[in-house]
Amino acid sequence: MDSTLENIVAHYLGLSAVSRIGVYAEDVGSGEKLFELNSQQVFRSASTIKLAIAYEVMRRVDAGLLRLEDDVKIERSRFVGGSGLMRLMAGNLKPNVECMLQLMLTVSDNSASNILVDLVGKSSVNNSMRELGLKGTILAGKFMYARKKRFNSTTPADMVRLISAIYVGRGLSAKSARRLIRILSFQQHTGLIPSSLPGWWVKTINKPGALSDLRADVAVVWDEDWAYSAAIFVEGFKDAYMGERCVREISRGVFDAFLAERGGAERGSRRG
User: How far apart are the C-alpha atoms of 99 and 111, rounded to whole Å?
Assistant: First the structure.
């Protein structure tokens, strides 16, 4: 375990600023573990589990069971919290599967996410996760609906393996994987893992999640000849700023440790 990362974790836990931290990071190409802390422990997933829904949507597209241009029905009476853009744009949207996928992944719209859950079924999402070997990732139900204290859940290791599968196209056609990567490249919530990285030359796709006492983010970070995936979960804080700062500092620590391992240097002065 990298000593700088150990110190970051010890600092936040020592201050009691957060109660639990889970991290997993690995080299996408080799699968080599870069950093691990509570990586198999189950956390509430918040919106990171929307990657699992997106994966199942594209798996069905590949199987010919669904088309991105298929119409979906928008019922204003079923809008839920966390549906800002969809509430605003409902009268102007072209309500099809691809539109819902874009809203779910880029602005984390909960109503769009629920439409896709209804479309593919939570059991199908969970079965796909089992097929990928992600035993800790469970979609318990739709967003902003009561579930009798059952939370959508995942582990940091599962989330890394899921976003890596999307990045390399594991279980998806190359076309579907590229489609998800392109949508994720328009991510509007980049204040956690991506915001701590050093410059324009580092590329990322990410999907964050937030609850009142939890911040999480999962990302692929890459340059021309390398890529790594990371998932960071921080929970049990009273001050959201401290939780978010913890995620950002761990993200930068993973990045620095990864480049040091490769003997690389930042390219902030190089323009392509």
Answer: 12
